[in-house]
């Protein structure tokens, strides 16, 4: 091997080591090193004027005509189904889905989509190109009996949803507006700006919670399960909509009704995103 070939091999080896070290340093980045987070929390995606019933009358007028053409809420859809067996029971899910892509609302916890690879319906992990958002009527059938029916709007539960027992007797009925339970408590700063969203279902807080500053920027995010705070709740600085910067994170129980768990402050940042406190684990 001549000197030039040896030198070339040496350079390639050094380059690979440098790339490996760089990728390793990226994977070991401290998630608390900066409080600056994704700008999707800025007000361009804040839900406004929830539970507006003005569109429902128009939808009812054209319901029969659209159903024949698989057009729901003005969108052309396709029919699909998924099948699985659990403890000797055959479970079928019949649904409509849209091939139109739409970025899921970051404020909605459960987004339903059809995974074409394993032919199943999922509620998280949707990405454009991986599957299709459910859009239109849905039925879940167990042993030829309808046990659940409802409507989807771009992957979110919409309008009236009903649950039935094995004898097809109605057990429960819920109402949604594009993923938000109709029981949810919404307060406003004015007619166009939301102050707080408290998700409520079955009379208990259930789902994602949001509080906003009066300039529409997110102030607090968290999650409820069965009326109790769970997981990580995050407070944000009011930066005048220039960027989203964490102020404080409070860790609650991972599952509702966990005994002997006391919430604690996990980390705090200043307004520039610099870490000022972190609980030692």
User: Could you describe the largest sheet, including whether it forms a barrel?
Assistant: 9 strands, antiparallel
Residue ranges: pLDDT <50 for 5 or more in a row? 2-27
Alpha carbon gyration radius: 24 Å
What's the overall geometry?
globular
Multimerization state: single chain
Quick synopsis:
Helices cover 14% and strands 46% of the residues. The protein is mainly beta. This is Antitoxin component YwqK of the YwqJK toxin-antitoxin module.
Explain the overall architecture.
The chain is mostly beta strands. It has two domains: 33-46 and 184-281, no CATH class; 51-181, no CATH class. Helices cover 14% and strands 46% of the residues. The chain has three helices and 22 strands. The chain has helices at 3-27, 54-61, 63-68, and strands at 36-37, 71-72, 75-76, 78-86, 89-98, 113-115, 120-122, 131-142, 145-153, 156-164, 170-177, 180-181, 185-190, 193-198, 200-201, 204-205, 207-212, 218-225, 228-236, 244-251, 264-269, 275-278. A hairpin with a 2-residue loop joins strand 9 (145-153) and strand 10 (156-164). The chain is globular and about 60 Å long.
Secondary structure blueprint with pairings:
Layout lengths: L2 H25 L8 E2 L16 H8 L1 H6 L2 E2 L2 E2 L1 E9 L2 E10 L14 E3 L4 E3 L8 E12 L2 E9 L2 E9 L5 E8 L2 E2 L3 E6 L2 E6 L1 E2 L2 E2 L1 E6 L5 E8 L2 E9 L7 E8 L12 E6 L5 E4 L3
Antiparallel strand pairs: 1-20, 2-3, 4-5, 5-8, 6-7, 6-8, 8-9, 9-10, 10-11, 11-12, 13-14, 14-17, 15-16, 17-18, 18-19, 19-20, 20-21, 21-22
């Amino acid at each position: 091997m001549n000197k030039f070939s040896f030198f070339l091999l040496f350079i390639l080896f050094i380059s690979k080591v440098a790339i490996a070290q760089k990728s390793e340093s990226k994977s070991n980045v401290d998630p608390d090193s900066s409080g600056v987070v994704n700008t999707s929390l800025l007000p361009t995606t804040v839900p406004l004027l929830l539970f507006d019933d003005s569109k429902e009358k128009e939808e009812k007028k054209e319901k029969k005509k659209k159903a024949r053409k698989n057009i729901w809420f003005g969108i052309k859809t396709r029919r699909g189904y998924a099948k699985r067996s659990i403890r000797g029971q055959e479970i079928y899910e019949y649904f409509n889905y849209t091939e139109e892509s739409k970025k899921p609302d970051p404020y909605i916890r459960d987004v339903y989509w059809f995974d074409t690879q394993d032919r199943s319906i999922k509620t998280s992990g949707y990405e454009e190109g991986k599957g299709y958002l459910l859009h239109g009527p849905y039925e879940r059938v167990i042993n030829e009996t309808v046990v659940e029916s409802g409507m989807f709007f771009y992957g979110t539960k919409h309008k009236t949803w009903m649950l039935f027992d094995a004898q097809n007797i109605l057990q429960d009925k819920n109402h949604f507006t594009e993923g938000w339970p109709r029981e949810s408590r919404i307060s406003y700063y004015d007619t166009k700006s939301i102050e707080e969203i408290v998700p409520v279902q079955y009379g208990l807080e259930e789902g994602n919670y949001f509080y906003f500053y009066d300039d529409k920027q997110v102030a607090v995010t968290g999650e409820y399960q069965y009326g109790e705070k769970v997981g990580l709740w995050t407070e944000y600085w009011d930066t005048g909509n220039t960027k989203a910067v964490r102020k404080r994170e409070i860790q609650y129980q991972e599952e509702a009704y966990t005994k002997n768990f006391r919430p604690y402050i996990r980390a705090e940042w200043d307004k520039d995103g610099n870490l000022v406190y972190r609980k030692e684990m």
